[in-house]
Amino acid sequence: MTQNGLLDLAGGIVRKAMARGASGAECTIDEGDEFTAEVRLREIESLKEAGSRGVGLRILMGKRTGSSYTSDLSGEGLERLVRSAFEIAEISTEDPHAGLPEADELGSISGDLRLYSPGIENLDPARGIELAKRAEAAAFDADPRISNSDGASFESGTGRHVFANSRGFAGEYRTSSCSLSASPVARDGDSMERDYWFTMARDPGGLQAAEEVGRTAAGRALRRLHPVKVETQKAPVVFEPRTARSLLESVFDAVHGMSVYRQESFLAGKLGEKVADERVTVTDDATIPGGFGSSPFDDEGVPSRRTPVVERGVLKSYLLNTYAARKLGMQTTGNASRGLTGNAGIGHGNFFLEAGVQTPGRIIAGISNGFFVTGLLGFGVNIVTGDYSRGATGLWIRGGELAFAVSEVTIAGNLRDMLLNVEAVGDDLEFQGSLAAPTLKIGGMTVGGK
Amino acid sequence: MRFADSIFAGRFGISTRDLDRYLAAALEHGGDYADLYFEYLLTSSIGIDESIVKNAAQGVSMGVGVRVIAGERTGYAYSDDLSPGKILKAARVAAHIASGPGKTDKFDLREGLRHDLYPVPTAPTETALAERVELVKRADRAARAYDPRVFQVQAAYADNLRHVLVATSDGVLTVDRQPLARLSVHALARRNGETPQQGHAGGGGRVDLGFFLEDKPPEHFAREAAREAIAMLDAADAPAGETTVVLGPGWPGILLHEAVGHGLEADFNRKGVSAFTGRAGQKVASELCTVIDDGTIPSRRGSLNVDDEGHPTARNVLIENGILRGYLQDKLSSTLMGAAPTGNGRRESYAHIPMPRMTNTFMLAGGSDPEEIVRSVPKGLYCANFGGGQVDITNGNFVFSASESYLIEGGRITRPVRNASLIGNGPEALKFVSMVGNDLKLDEGIGMCGKAGQSVPVGLGIPTVKIDRMTVGGTA
Prior knowledge:
- The complex is a heterodimer.
- By secondary structure, chain A is α+β, with helices and mostly antiparallel strands.
- Chain A has 9 helices and 20 strands.
- The N and C termini of chain A lie far apart (about 65 Å).
- Chain B is α+β, with helices and mostly antiparallel strands.
- At the A-B interface, strand 2, strand 3, helix 2, strand 6 and strand 16 of A face strand 1, strand 2, strand 3, helix 4 and strand 5 of B.
C-alpha cells in the first residue's frame, strides 16, 4: 500500500509517542517537489527546483496537548520531535474539549478523486519554460501598448500527504498541480498599469492555452489604462468572478468553526436564519474529482464530504473540525486542516457560490450607474463586525455599458448587508483553485473617491 | 560569532573546503556568481484562548539553498538534508542555469564585516518553556481585568532562533545567530447584546526574554488590546471620500511601507514596473518628509547583522526632504544596475530566492507639536492604529486599513469610527504632508511583510503627520 515507507514512518512515530506514555497521538508527514520557471522579456529569468519533507506530531496527555515538527528525519531528529511534544504538553493547560475524533468518525472516501496525475512527474522542464514564454509573447503581441512585463511563470509540483493516529487511522494520498500565469504591463502616455491572469490544473493538459492566458492578461492590463477617480457616491457594485472569490473567502472566514465558538464572527449564532438573499447558495464539497479542495480525508482522518453552508439565503451549517464541533455541541464536518505544527485548524474543500441564470453581460446591461470591480487592494474586512472597506479598481458602468477605467477608490459596506443585498448572480462559475464564485451584483455600497 | 564556532561547523561538520566544493559544483557550467545559504531554525509558539493554553508547539527546520546567477538569470535549488551528497545535487541542479566552462574551485572565503545588533547570550527559544508560558497567562489575565466587557482574549507568544551561514563565490563567508520573539494579544469586547468589537496589540524584537519581563511586560500589550476593543464600542460610521488625515506616531508608519517602500525596491525599478521608476532626484513628497530604511537599529524586529546574502545592513536614505534619493538593493539588482549593495537582500528561508526587501522603515521627526497638529484640523480623521496594507507597485495605488480611528472636529479628537481603509497614490500622497510632529516613534515590533509569496519580519515608524488630502473608505 505505502510506496515509499512514509506511512510506516508515521505509524512508528505514533507508536513511539504512545510507548512513552501519551494517551493519544497523531502524526502528519508532508513531502513535496516543486519546479518553477520564470520568464521575462522572452528570456528565462529564473529556474527553481527542489524537494522537501517534514514531520509533525501532536500528542495528548489526558486533556493536555503538545505539538512539534521537524525537517530533520535522522534518528536524532525524530527523537527530538517526540521529546519536544512531551515538553509542550507539560506546559499546556487541561482542556476538556481536547482529543482525537471518535474511532467511528475516522475513515476515507473510496474511489479515485483524481488528485494526482503522473504526467507532472515526467514533465520536461523545457515544456514549462516554453509555456511561460508563449504566454508572455501572446501578451506582447496583443497590443503595442503592452510595452513591458513583470514576467510569466510556470509552476508545477507534486505532494504526498500522510496521516496516522493512535485510534488506528492510517492513510495517504498524492497530489499534483501546475499553473501558468502572466503579468504584462500596459503603458500609454503617463499611465502605466499591470494585471495578470493565471490557470491551474492537476496536469499540464488541463491548463488553458498559453496564448489565451497571455491575451487575457494583456486585455485586463489594457482596460485599466487612464483611470479616473470618481465622485464619492452610493452605487451598485458588480464583482467579476476573480473579485467575487474574495467575498466568498470572507464568508468562509465567517462560518469558520473556531471564529464561531469564540463569537468573533458576524455569522455566529445565526444558524437557520436568513443571512443572504435567496439567490445565494454556498456549498463546501471536498469530494469533487480533480478539485483543488478535494481530499479523501481531512487532516484529522475524518472522511471528506459535501456540506451545504447557505441554502437559498439561509445559513445551514458552519465548517467544523473535531474541536470546534465539541465546543459547539455539534459533529465535525470533516474540515480539519493543519500544517505540520499545532492543533488542527479549519479549512475549506471546494467552496463555491452556486451559479445563477444571468450572463455577466445581462447583469451589466441592467445597471444605469454602477461600478464593475476587477481588482481589490488591502485587507479591510472585519469578520467580527462585518465591516468591509477595501481599495478597488475596475470599470465604471454607465447606461448598461462598461464606460471608463476607475482606480484609487474604495468600496465599503457591511458584509451582513452585502450578503442580503445580492441582486444578481451570474451564470459564469468556474473553478481556478479551491474557491469559486460567479459574477455578483451587490446593491447599495459606498464608493469612496473624490 | 566565527564560522568555526557555528552550529554548521560544529554539529554538521561543514568545513570551508566543503563550501569551496559546493560553490565549485554550482559554477561547474560557468555563471557570474553563486551563493550558499544554510539555515538551522528553531521555533516555539504558545497560544492561550479562553484562559486555556491549548495550542503550543516547537520545531526544527533546516536546509540549504544554492543560487547561481548568470547575467540576468538565476538558478536555484535547495535541500532539507545537509549531507554532502544532497548539497552537491542541489548545487548541480542550480548550475544548469548557466552553460559554459566551469569556474575556479578556490573562492578565498573570508569572514567579512558584520554588525552586532542583538548580543543576546540566551535567546528566548533557549529558555525554559515554563517561563515563557507565563507570558500568555499574564496577558490573558490582564486583558480580562481591564474591563468586564472584555469577553474573549487570545494571546500568542512566538519566538525563533535562526542560525545562518552564507558563503559566496565573491569570497564572503558569514555566520549569524538571529533571535526573534513577539507577543500579541487579541481582545473582544461587547456591551449588552450588541455586536462585539476587537482590539489588537503586540510587540517584540531581536531581544532576550528580559524584554517581556522588564521593558514591555505582557500587561502592556494586554491593556492596549483591551483598550482598543473598548474604545471601538462607541464607533460611528467612518466618513467616505477625501478628507484631512492625521496619523498618530508608531505603527501608522505602514503608510511609508506601502506608499513608498515597496515602490523603491530595486527589482521593480530595474524592470521598469514601479510607479517610482526613473524618478530618482525628483520630488515625490513634501519637503517635510525624510524617509529612511535602517537595518542597523539594535534589537529591532527588522534589523539584521548581515542581510541574507551576507552583506552588512545599512541606514539608507530613501527620500530626503521630499526628493527621491535611493533604492533598496539586493545582489542581483545592484550588479545589473551598477549600484552599491544596500544590505537589503532578504529571503524567507533557505527555500526562497533573495529579493530586495525593507528592514525598518520610518520618517524622521519634524518640528511640530502633535497637539498643535490636531488643533489645526477643523474636520478630518485621526488614525491611531492600523491593520495591514497593500500596494500596486505599477500604478502606485496603496491601501492601509485603520483599526482604531477618530473624527477630528473643530481641532479636537471626538468620537471613534468604524474600520475603514485609506487609499492613495505612492508618488503623490506624501506631497500633501503639511505638518510633521516632533514625536517619531517606532512600532512595537510585530510587522510581517509579504512579497511574491515570501514573508519577512520588518519594523515601521512615523511621527504624528498631517496629510491634507487622502481618500477614506467609510460609508458615511
